[in-house]
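Task: complex structure prediction.
Instruction: return structure tokens for all chains below.
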Amino acid sequence: MKTRPWIRAATALLLLSISTSVFAADAVVPKPKNLERDLIRRTERPANYETPIEDLNSLYTPANKLFVRSHLPNTATTPIEKWEIRIEGEGIEKPMKLSIEQLKKDFPAVEIPAVVMCAGNRRSEFQPRVTGVQWGKGAIGNGLWKGVRLKDILQKAGVKPSTVEVAFNGADFPSLPATPDFIKSIPLTRALDDSTLLAYEYNGAPLPLENGYPVRLVIPGWVATYWVKQVVEIHALTKPSDNFWMKKAYRIDKGKFPAVEKGFASQENETSAPITEMVVNSIITNLQDGQKLKAGREFRVQGFAWDGGRGIKTVEVSTDGGATWTDATLGVQPGPYSWRQFTHAFKPAKGREYRILARATNGAGQTQPAAAVANGPGYHNNSTYETVAVAR
Amino acid sequence: MKRSVRTLWLVAPVLSSFIPVLPFATPVISAAAPRNLPPAPLAAGEGRQQTVAYCSSCHSTEYIPMNAPAQDAAGWQKTVTKMVQSYGAPIPEQDQKLIVNYLSAHYSGKAR
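Output:
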């Protein structure tokens, strides 16, 4: 089918006008990421996209490659100069409203390197399979989060000691009025922790729109469900929240993860506790199953390990399916909440098959199990896993 | 081979600008890894129309095949009930049944 030249010209003009309007909007809202090009789509709406593991091969994950997890299908596009964060609730003496400008001007800035990870990362590896977004290993990233301490804001607003939890609501919104808005709360102790931030920058640039622009909660060490994006409301509660997202979702059965089953007593019940800290874990970033290695030439296994804030003490690598283990060489640990990179070099012999695994141990001596701990929602998968490579 | 793939990426936007009729179709299915294929249409069958209509008011229907390996009839019943009771999906009871039957018939991949 031939297209008439004037139709082409008109279409080109139309496209040009669309692209200029997108650029014109840059001043207030960042240009959307190219999710389809840079990430692996799990679902398009709400946007759930993970990072290909080979793009996790740097200390800090580039913003365009950072995974995207959304609970609600609609992202707010309020211009930054009109953004307002309300600090209120029964537990607040002096309710306040803060603009982004005030946030940056009135409070000291802090920058913390920290892992952001979806609680369901590696969910698709559970056997038997469990429902939920079928994440591979890429619902994780590590970067520099810059913002202000939540503590400083809460203290300025006169947070009362009767406060039990602090709840956060984002400007993102559901498609149906009856759908519960995504609101998460954290215990007051965690809200007042020095590491808990209201962050407005990632790796030295404004947050990407899909990662919470213009401001999101950052709770280093805790799974990302609490890292509420596009924060507009901070609510100090004197009674535990009974929101759907606290009472029904993101909970773990008691007794299954004793190392991290703590820190949030006000939301515990007889059988379950809210998920909080991340468990010790590791990922190899430069190997795919069935990969061919060059015989006789040194191959360097690369990856990273992380936990909920004790720091990584050792990473061991096995090339024989877990029969023997060797300590890997560790990279820097820029802070307790950052991941730590590791490498392990070996010379593959011709025709041999290598079954390669990594196993991390944190500062508290906790390590990765050989099999994932089964749980209904498919959280905390930190089992060691095997990647098979052949040398030839 | 890697290099040629990369080169293709560089020229793909230029090429696509010469095909104004298909400006959106070209870059999505690119040669660069990872490949995101367009979502496959849901299987034909009774209840498909209601499933697409109700489910897509809040989320893309990719959620359905994505969860098939973990689902069976009882699982889909639970899911639909959750969508109605917890997320407020306004699905009349008769259509709920149709949807559960449709999902169970076409997307039950749970190992027995």
